[in-house]
């Protein structure tokens, strides 16, 4: 393709995505769903020969990694920590943990029943399908109340981190034992400590840089830290989240030595840091927008719509989605005793699911697994999220007996 045509094509995709964001605000149809449909439409019109699918898959994987980092950072930069939010953080964390592990068990049972393969391989495939996609849900919930929005952001972020931790453990270990689980626990504790140290160092660097070029080095370091964490089998996503929370909540930090790192008594320095924070948020939002645009268009292009009509895909995919809905309903209604709408339907699978599927080692791959099941679950849960958002009205929610608002 001619370089100028390529520039026009890329520019058209960005402008189209920007228009989709306005359509999403007006109609509550998630913009990422519109991007997926656009990618599918391009493949139907121009055919799979337009871009080699192997090349598309590699680009999707790279964009997925970058997208995951900037989206989690974007979420962390939107969250404020305060004593009043202990309840919502606790509820979202419990939701992420319990629903995740119950979903893994449920999906594993579905895969074993239909595919009749080894337990460990079915578990590895169940993990990506059990993770809520922060890349899809976070840009789609601006219509919700502030309390519901915070619950969803925390839940999606916790779900990403927990899912990646468990996935990395299962795919890295050749054999499983009590000692390996204990070692895994220690690696999480070490990762949390490391995350705090690195986040403080990056915050200090951010507050002291006076050069015109300051955010690109910080974002580059975050990308490199994530890559190193993956190579060392550490939960590097924690570093991203802790850094965002630390920078956005510096006024809540009470330790004097930490305060000296993040702010000073000089009002000029504090004003400078606040201005930096605004710029960092702006750059993160726009980077997230660009990455999300090309990821979901290319992922939509990689979907062969024909496989979605196969009976095996429909049967197994519907069973998985049904299991996810049932488990989420039971948790929200009977454990959390909260109003279930629209949270019941806000469980899309997407970027992180695709990313982890591409990361499954050869020795743990299921030859009988139809990738159409993955596409089916992602598209169906995205449509369900759209329906939940369309039906949601903050001013007409009626709580049943015993139900609590989130």
From TrEMBL:
Signal peptide as annotated in the record: none
One cellular component (GO) term of this entry: plasma membrane
InterPro entries linked: Cation/H_exchanger_TM (IPR006153), Na+/solute_symporter_sf (IPR038770)
Membrane-spanning residues: 5-23, 29-46, 55-73, 93-115, 122-139, 151-170, 182-206, 218-247, 289-307, 313-332, 344-361, 373-392
GO BP, sorted A to Z: proton transmembrane transport
Compartmental location: Cell membrane
Domain Cation/H+ exchanger transmembrane stretches: 16-383
Keywords tagged on the record: Antiport, Cell membrane, Ion transport, Membrane, Transmembrane, Transmembrane helix, Transport
Chief site of localization: membrane
GO molecular function: antiporter activity
One Pfam family this sequence matches: Na_H_Exchanger
Record membrane topology: Multi-pass membrane protein
PANTHER family the record matches: NA(+)/H(+) ANTIPORTER 1 (PTHR32507), NA(+)_H(+) ANTIPORTER 2-RELATED (PTHR32507:SF0)
Record's protein name: Cation:proton antiporter
Organism for this UniProt entry: Xanthocytophaga agilis
